[in-house]
Design brief:
The protein is mostly beta strands. It is built from 2 helices and 15 strands.
């Protein structure tokens, strides 16, 4: 998956939702959050299962599409809380590409997004193309998504542009070793099938090292068996 990074914080929008906002868009859309910017050329990305108002490095909000029409389309990616609606992405796509990904860094504290379980909606020309929910926390210590041994960042391999969807098939099974800070310090590959054994083997190893769990200074090493099926995401 390619990502075009926009290193800026977008202003908040406080408009109120209406029934018309929930009309479904005929254009495909998908939402994803990254814990931090992926390493260029690694072939893997750190998918966030929750977000912080004050992360060590900026989170990224991403949206992707395919079969995009060859015309100008207004795009808005927004997150709602009790105070209203805040804009994570806003702009116009010219329709020169049919399949692409867009990512931008976000600052939830600057946008005024309150902690809690939040709804995110992607709209094309005012019609809903995708929606999801995610927890926003003040800090990692207060985040429900990072308590205990919960994996709050998942490593994922990127989709090669020249690969047919039917060929994007494979499976890893890793034993991941986590240090006291919750970062991966050791990866043992038990199973590598399909693309996992060939073209995406290196990217898979990079993805495995992106997982994170809640820190625990009392435990020098925690090990977990983690399967990962390689398949085309929606």
């Amino acid at each position: 998956m390619r990502a075009w990074m926009a290193a800026f914080v977008l202003a908040a929008s406080m408009s109120t939702a209406t029934a018309d906002d929930e009309a479904r868009s005929p254009i495909f859309g998908h939402i994803e959050f990254l814990w931090n910017a992926p390493v260029a050329g690694a072939g893997a990305r750190p998918v966030a299962q929750g977000l912080l108002r004050h992360p060590e490095t900026p989170h990224l909000a991403c949206w992707k599409t395919q079969g995009f029409p060859q015309r100008a389309v207004d795009v808005r990616l927004e997150i709602d809380d009790s105070a209203g609606r805040h804009t994570l992405w806003s702009g116009t796509e010219a329709g020169t590409e049919s399949k692409f990904v867009r990512c931008a860094t976000i600052d939830l504290a600057a946008l005024g997004v309150a902690p809690g379980l939040r709804r995110i909606v992607l709209r094309f020309d005012g019609q809903m193309a995708a929606q999801t929910t995610i927890e926003v926390a003040e800090s990692l210590a207060s985040a429900a998504f990072a308590q205990g041994d919960r994996m709050y960042v998942h490593g994922r391999t990127n989709y090669p542009d020249d690969l047919a969807p039917a060929d994007y098939v494979g499976r890893f099974v890793w034993v991941l070793g986590f240090g006291p800070d919750g970062r991966v310090v050791d990866v043992q590959t038990e199973v590598a099938e399909g693309l996992a054994a060939t073209r995406l083997r290196t990217a898979g190893q990079a993805a495995a090292r992106l997982y994170r769990i809640g820190p625990d200074p009392a435990k020098p090493l925690r090990q977990f068996r983690q399967p990962y099926d390689i398949r085309r995401a929606p």
